[in-house]
Specification:
By secondary structure, this protein is an alpha/beta fold. The chain contains 3 helices and 8 strands; from the N terminus they run E-E-E-E-H-E-E-H-E-H-E. Strand 4, helix 1 and strand 5 form a beta-alpha-beta unit. The longest helix is centred in the last third of the chain and has 15 residues.
Length: 152
């Protein structure tokens, strides 16, 4: 369950393609992310893989923003400013958990519909979010790596 927005990590730069660093609180995590573009633009969540971080989306965000989209690039679990809120919670990155992180981020940001794109670990998170919430994920771009696995 999502619990709210926090203030930006730093002053917001100017211009339509400028990245703004922010954090949000979900039940499990404080998620650090960067966003670019018009806050009313259709949201696209870009998800990095291992061992990268939000910089992996740098060449993608500007073209999306120029086309009117809102680009949101979160740090996945264990990266950057994303942290577990409770230090006693076991650290895990099972596929259901990282997929839920995407949905939780979208919930707090108020996205009823959005697109996802990711590779490697981010591709897995994107595919899980899309599979479990097809009514919310309008489009998914999955690049390389692994997606959903049946581990039973």
């Amino acid at each position: 369950m999502a619990s709210g927005l926090r203030e930006p990590l730093e002053a917001s730069p100017q211009g339509p393609t400028a990245r703004r660093a922010r954090t949000i609180q979900t039940q499990a995590l404080t998620i650090g992310f960067e966003e670019s573009g018009d806050s009313q633009g259709f949201p696209i969540i870009l998800l990095h893989g291992f061992p990268d971080d939000v910089r992996a989306g740098d060449e993608v965000t500007a073209p999306l923003v120029r086309r009117g989209y809102r680009a949101v690039v979160p740090y996945l679990r264990g990266y950057g400013t994303t942290r577990f809120r409770d230090s006693s919670v076991p650290r895990m990155a099972e596929q259901a958990a990282i997929g839920q992180d995407v949905i939780d981020l979208a919930d707090v940001l108020g996205f009823s519909r959005f697109a996802v794109a990711g590779y490697d670990w981010g591709g897995r998170a994107a595919s899980i979010a899309a599979a479990l919430h097809p009514e919310r994920v309008r489009a998914a771009v999955l690049v390389g790596g692994y997606t959903i696995q049946d581990t039973l």
